[in-house]
Amino acid sequence: MPNVGKSTLFNAITNAGAESANYPFCTIEPNVGVVAVPDERLDFLAELYSPKKYTPATIEFVDIAGLVKGASKGEGLGNKFLENIRRTDAVIHVVRCFDDPDIVHVEGGCDPARDIEIIDLELIMADMEVLERRIERVKKAAKGGDKKLLREAETLESLLAHLNEGKSARSWDATEDEFAVAAESDLLSLKPVIYAANMDESGFTNYESNGYYRTVKAIADGEGALVLPICAKIEQEIRELPAEDREMFLEELGMTEAGLERLIKCSYSLLGLISFLTCGPDECRAWTIKRGTKAPQAAGKIHSDFERGFIRAEIVAFDDLKSCGSMAAAKEKGLVRSEGKDYVMKDGDVTLFRFNV
Questions:
Q1: CA distance linking residue 159 with residue 216, whole number of Å
Q2: Which residues are CB-neighbours of 290 under 8 A, at least 6 positions away?
Q3: Which of 179, 237, 310, 351 has a C-alpha 20 to 30 A away from that of 211?
Q4: What is the pTM (predicted TM-score) of this model?
Q5: pLDDT band, very low/low/confident/very high, at 3 (cuts 50, 70, 90)
Q6: Which residues contact 21 (CB under 8 A, 6 or more apart)?
Q7: Distance CA 253, CA 67 (A)
Q8: Rounded to the nearest 10 degrees, what angle do helices 259-271 and 232-240 cross at?
C-alpha cells in the first residue's frame, strides 16, 4: 500500500535514491535497483587469487507504486502497476506495522491483516480477469474436441473457482502439472511472497512480542510464505553510515546482519536458489542457479558452449578449500573431485568446468 515504508526500505537496501514522501503515489515509474549479493566465500577467493575482476551475483529489486483498493479496476495508478509486478520472480509485500499520526494511512489506521487482504484481493481479481480471457480462448480452440485443450480449460476453471472464493493461486490444492498450466498465465497471486513487516524502532527492538508483527507472521505461516521483521528507518540509518561504523551500529542494536543481507537470504530461500563459485587470476565470480541444477546446466550459465561440450566438472567444497588454504593443498588431500553429467550442484561448490566443442 502507499505510505508503508516501501520506498524508504528500497532506498536503504539499494542506495538507489528513489523518492519517498508522505503522500500516496509518490512513486510513479517503478524504480529499479541492482545490488551485489554479499558473499564472504567470494571475498575469500578474491584474497586468494587477487583477480583482475571480482563479480558477485546480483539481485534486482523493483520499487513500484503503492496499490490501493480497486487497483485491479484501475483505481489509484491501477493496472499499469499490476503489470510491473507481473515481470518479477517474487513479491516483497511491505506491510505497515507501526502507528504514526504524521504519516497518512490510506485506510485510516494501521491494520496489517486488513492491508494484506486488500492487496491480495486486488491481485486475485486481476488474475481472475486474465484467467477468464484465457479460458474463453482455450474453449474456442477446443471446439474440435482436442482432449489436451479440454483438460487445460478444466484446470483453469478449477483455479478460477478457487480464486472466486478470495483465495490466492498460491494456496490452490493442485498437482505439479496443473500448476504448470496455471504458470503459463503469469498470475500475480501465484508468485511467492516475502512479507516485510515494517516496524518503527521501538516495535522492532522486541519484535517477537509486537502484536502487528505476530499478525503478519500468522498470515505468512498459514500460506507458507516467509516473513522478514524489519525497520526501514533503521536500515536507512545503517546505509548512511560509513562502512567501518556499520558493524558497531548493528552490534549496539543486537543485530548480526543488515536488512539487505537478511532479505537476500530470504529471497534465495523462497526461490530455491544457490550459488556456485569460479575462481582464478582473471576473475572470481558467483553464479546463481536453481537448487537441483546438474553440472552441465550450471556450466551453461557461464556459456552455452560449456554445456554443449561438457566433459566433467572439477569441484571442491568451499569449506574444504578454505580449511586447506589453497587449491594445491586441497588437491593434495584428495578433496578436489571430478564429477560427471549427473552431478547435482551444491551451494558453495568451487568449480572448474572441462569442455570440448
A1: 25
A2: 271, 272, 273, 274
A3: 237
A4: 0.84
A5: confident
A6: none
A7: 32
A8: 120
Q: Which residues does 330 contact at the CB level (< 8 Å), separation at least 6?
A: 316, 320, 321, 324, 336
Higher pLDDT, 97 or 2: 97
Q: How far is CA 204 from the centre of its chain?
A: 22
C-alpha cell at 140: 474456442
Distance CA 32, CA 24 (A): 19
CB 310 within 8 A of CB 341: yes
Could you give the CA distance from residue 38 to residue 322 in angstroms, rounded to a whole number? 18
Q: Are 285 and 323 in contact (CB under 8 A)?
A: no
**In angstroms, what CA-CA distances link 329 with 298, 321, 332?**
25, 8, 5
What is the SS3 string spanning the chain?
CCCCCHHHHHHHHHCCCCCCCCCCCCCCCCEEEEEECCCHHHHHHHHHHCCCEEECCEEEEEECCCCCCCHHHCCCCHHHHHHHHHCCCCEEEEEECCCCCCCCCCCCCCCHHHHHHHHHHHHHHHHHHHHHHHHHHHHHHHHHCCHHHHHHHHHHHHHHHHHHCCCCHHHCCCCHHHHHHHHCCCCHHHCCEEEEEECCHHHHHCHHHCHHHHHHHHHHHHHCCEEEEECHHHHHHHHHCCHHHHHHHHHHCCCCCCHHHHHHHHHHHHHCEEEEEECCCCEEEEEEEECCCEHHHHHHHHCHHHHHCEEEEEEEEHHHHHHHCCHHHHHHCCCCEEECCCCECCCCEEEEEEECC
Cell readout for 50 is 587477487
Taking only the tens place, the pLDDT of each residue in 141-187 is: 988 888 999 999 999 999 999 999 999 999 999 999 999 999 999 89
Quick: pLDDT tens for 84-105: 778 889 999 999 999 988 887 7
Q: Torsions phi, psi of 312, nearest 5?
A: -160, 170
Q: Which has the closest alpha carbon to 33: 68, 64, 1, 54?
A: 64
